[in-house]
Amino acid sequence: MSGAPGLGERRCVPCEGGVAPLARGEAERLKADLHADWQLAPDAKSIRRAFAFRDFYRTMSFVNALAHIANIEDHHPDLEVGYNYCRVAFTTHAIGGLSENDFICAAKIDRIPVA
């Protein structure tokens, strides 16, 4: 009954390179555990999701919550932020593609309330 923890319960592990990025099939398998709005890049080297908000305050509240998660996990996304939107992209720069860390952080971000 215990099973492996879901992505949102896992912790990122340091990645300084020296490992291969995830293959497309593995990335697609992990993406299936995320919110449906996450998109796998055509080259399978990143995942992206766009978030929309009613106003700047809500946008920045989300960005601050996301930054808190990223700092705890020591795995940081690329962000595009404007008045009422935030676009999030994850990739593991040290390996030039996706690692499990990207999916762990995306799953944690999926838990942030978006109003």
What can you tell me about this protein's structure?
The protein has a domain at 41-108: Gyrase A, domain 2 (2-Layer Sandwich). The protein is built from three helices and four strands, in the order αββαββα. It has helices at 24-31, 56-73, 100-109; strands at 39-40, 47-52, 78-82, 85-90. A four-stranded antiparallel β-sheet has the order 1-2-4-3, with helices on one face. The longest helix has 18 residues, at 56-73.
Summary of the model, kept short:
With 115 residues, this protein is of the alpha+beta class.
Structure classification: alpha+beta
Unreliable stretches: none
General form = globular
| Biggest sheet character | 4 strands, antiparallel
Which percent range fits the helix content?
25-40%
Supply the CATH class of the domain at 41-108: Alpha Beta
Mean pLDDT: 91
What is the C-alpha radius of gyration, as a whole number of Å?
14 Å
Q: What's the tally of helices?
A: 3
Distance, first to last CA? 34 Å
CATH topology of the domain at 41-108: Gyrase A, domain 2
Oligomer: single chain
User: Can you tell me the CATH architecture of the domain at 41-108?
Assistant: 2-Layer Sandwich
Residue fraction in strands: 15-25%
Cross-sheet strand order for the largest sheet:
1-2-4-3
Q: What would you give as the CATH superfamily of the domain at 41-108?
A: Transcriptional coactivator/pterin dehydratase
Could you give the order of the helices and strands? HEEHEEH
Q: Say how many strands there are.
A: 4
